[in-house]
Input
Amino acid sequence: MDGIVDVLHFAVDGVTQQQQATANNLANSETPGFTGQDVSFESSLQQAINSTSGGTASVLVTPDPAAPATNGNNVTTSTQLVNAQEETLKYQAMVEMLNAQFRLVSGATGGSFT
Amino acid sequence: MSLFGNIDVSATGIGAAQTWLNTIAGNIANMNDVGPVNAAVYGQQAPVFTPTVSFDQVGDGVAVAAIAVGDTTGIIQSDPSSPVANAQGLVRVPDVQLGSQMVDMIQAQTDFQANTSALASAKTAYQSALTLGT
Output
């Protein structure tokens, strides 16, 4: 795993999956017996970046460990809504970083830096 | 997973909440039904939600598997003026409690709004992706 664009590409995909999990958790917030899903990729990506032998990052899907309510559902709507906002901001930040990289390449190859 | 798939996931949630609201509206509309003692009356309806299983690991949203119809036995009341009353002046009415329906309605409304909010978040993210390379 090397190259800023590759790293950002992986991270954007990871955040997209996090957003899907959040959307799925919210869609099932009234489904009896439903266990929410957590998606994480950050620590795996960190390890792959730090690895000297070229590690591979992966996206991990785990069940939400929160205690279920009386209907067996453990989704907390407010937490999920906060996650949705956070993930959108992360996504936008990554897209901005990608665009910055593309501008650098564009400028270095005789085009515009802006 | 289709293009802009996260919007589809939220859409399933919005659809499920809408179905729930529809059943509540039906229940309240039929709350004051009156029937003869020897016949079944309106049974309270409620949607049965099930998660949509995805081929990849993260779920694909929710589906309404069925509409559960509650007890059609209802409650026997005395209403001698009703044209459907029997010789003893008794009629059968649905067992729909307005209080629990109103509570369900608030939950369904919140459910709807939460899914709409998640959809708006996904839309904002996708819109930023469309600026890539511009």
About this structure: The first strand of chain A starts at residue 37 and ends at 40.
